[in-house]
Amino acid sequence: MVVDDDARVRSLIRRSLEPEGFEVDEAADESELEARLIACDYDLITLDLNLPGTDGLEITRRLRRRTDTPIIMVTGKGDVIDRIVGLEVGADDYVAKPFHVRELLARVRTVLRRVSLRASSSASDSLGGEEEMGYVVAGLKLVPSARLLLDAEGEPIALTRGEFDILAALIRANGRALSREALIDARGDDADAFDRAIDSTIARLRKKLPPGTISTVREVGYRIAFPVRLITMAT
After folding, report:
1. Residue 147 in contact with residue 162, Cβ under 8 Å?
2. Which domain range does residue 167 map to?
3. Looking at residues 4-30, what average pLDDT do you find?
4. Nearest Cα residue to 86 out of 52, 115, 58
5. Confidence (pLDDT) at 80
6. Tell me, what CATH number does 6's domain have?
7. Full DSSP string of the chain
8. Taking 50 as the threshold, does the pLDDT of residue 165 lie above it?
């Protein structure tokens, strides 16, 4: 699904993707996108930041409340802050206009490959009759294969894809401090310049977790401050 209010951009993206075997639908704004989403389940959405009415950032926030469909922001805003905000609200990647069609194609393939690998990993981890691994820390339960975080009452805690990946990396480190570079790799943004995005993600996580769960290690990065316990759950 290509969402852009400029018909020329939509046509360019369509003409770039269709010869590579992709089926492409178009929408000019949020209302057209929502109408399409009712009728079709898409593998990936490219989304312009500057749209009439609701902008791309708010649309991404709303989509992330109900779907994990990959989102690549395609926009004329190339400023680092705009890129960070886009990633923070749940976008999987970011392409700034003007862009080369081969770059866009490469990013589409990379994001789809990443999602496919995650799905394959979850499926293999959840085969019937096998034991599923989980982690308990500060009264929370993390289930990596289901990409699920539960609070002390067993209720899910809503996390973005980036928040979950960073928290999972910290929990797996079991108290060892991880650098921002390591957390960027864990989040899989392919954007190693965005240290500030990691700091912002940590700040959001701290608001969702029990106080003191994540501590800062000066000149190193971040760590889980409480003991981590590995558990197994029959599937």
Report:
1. no
2. 131-234
3. 93
4. 58
5. 66
6. 3.40.50.2300
7. -EE-S-HHHHHHHHHHHGGGT----EESSHHHHHHHHHH---S-EEE-SS-SSS-HHHHHHHHHTT----EEEEES---HHHHHHHHHTT-SEEEESS--HHHHHHHHHHHHHHHHHHHHHHHHHT-TTSEEEEEEETTEEEEGGGTEEE-TTS-B----HHHHHHHHHHHHHTT--EEHHHHHHHHT-S-TT-HHHHHHHHHHHHHHS-TTSEEEETTTEEEE-S--EEEEEE-
8. yes
| CA 48, chain centre distance (Å) | 17
Among 175, 168, 174, 200, which Cα is nearest to 157's?
168
Among 123, 149, 169, give the residue marking a domain's end.
123
Note the pTM of the prediction, 2 decimals.
Answer: 0.56
Same domain, 149 and 85: no
Q: Is the peptide bond before 98 cis (omega within 30 degrees of 0)?
A: yes
Residue whose tokens read 């791309």: 56
Cα dihedral 22/27/31/36 (nearest 10): -30
pLDDT over 60 (residue 37): yes
Starting at the edge strand found earlier in the chain, the sheet holding 229-234 runs 148-150, 140-143, 131-137, 229-234
- Asked if residue 135 and residue 114 are part of one domain, the reply reads no
Q: Based on the domain organization, do 74 and 53 belong to the same domain?
A: yes
Number of domains in the chain: 2
Instruction: State the chain's mean pLDDT as an integer.
Output: 83
